[in-house]
Amino acid sequence: RLLEHDLRHAVARGEMHLVYQPQTDVGSGAVIGFEALLRWKHPERGFVSPALFIPIAEESDAILQIGEWVLREACREAASWTQPLSIAVNVSAVQIHSPHFVGLVHEVLLRTGLAPQRLEVEVTETALISDPNRALLTLRQLKSLGLRIAMDDFGTGYSSLSNLRSFPFDKIKIDGSFVRSVDSNEQTAAIVRSVLGLGRGLGLPVLAEGVETEAELAFLATEQCHAAQGYLMGRPSPIAQFARHTHGTI
Ligand code: G
Ligand code: G
Ligand code: MN
Ligand code: NA
């Protein structure tokens, strides 16, 4: 496990950085926030995808150190913006089940001065089911700090519906696999409509991920989806790319 060894040193060696992807209000098109996404530039291999290295980091607990760095970096960055846009941070199962996680989030909010209501923690259902009681306690404690919890990759995990009832989510993120071709595939359209109905019934805003075409976005607007994210509105990029939204110079 070469990568595992290299991962342990990647943060200290400055090989990690964050990119940011805009999240927009479907009705107005306005940017409402950004999701922070981790990038690792390995000295020999070049860019390694988080889809590859996050699972390795999770097996080895290196995710705790990496996740702490991500949280600090994302909150520090967002606290420097002149507009109070939200910042979404992905959190893995290992972090959720760490006894130090809630204290860490509290400390990072205090230290960076980021208003808690601007922070959104993204968790997948799979992160919660190994120990649901413990996860529920952690999510409740996180919410008591004032932040929001989004269910990431909705529709791809296990028993989504019971998880929506059991855990105190503030937002549903529909997985990109359901958004692709939503404008042309009747089955996909029916699924997305029903998730939007679910969100309405539960009083939860829904964000559609992976929006790549105007036709997909138009469908989402017609169906009154709240928010969207995807290559159409912006690829995950260095924050300087979005200076207009983060540094107040319109
Ligand atoms: O950015 P990209 O599409 O390559 O991300 C691939 C996967 O890695 C996605 O599932 C995404 O949620 C995950 N990921 C990206 N950044 C982070 C991070 O900072 N922490 C965790 N736990 N997962 C991340
Ligand atoms: O699992 P999570 O939703 O956190 O991961 C988001 C992933 O989706 C990131 O790796 C990001 O790079 C990727 N992504 C974001 N927008 C798009 C898009 O429009 N199309 C595709 N194919 N991937 C996207
Ligand atoms: Mn995510
Ligand atoms: Na997702």
Automatic annotation (TrEMBL):
Coiled coil: none annotated. It comes from the Bacteria. Residues 1-250 form the EAL domain. This is Diguanylate cyclase. It comes from Methylobacterium tardum. The chain holds residues 536 to 785 of 795 of the full protein.
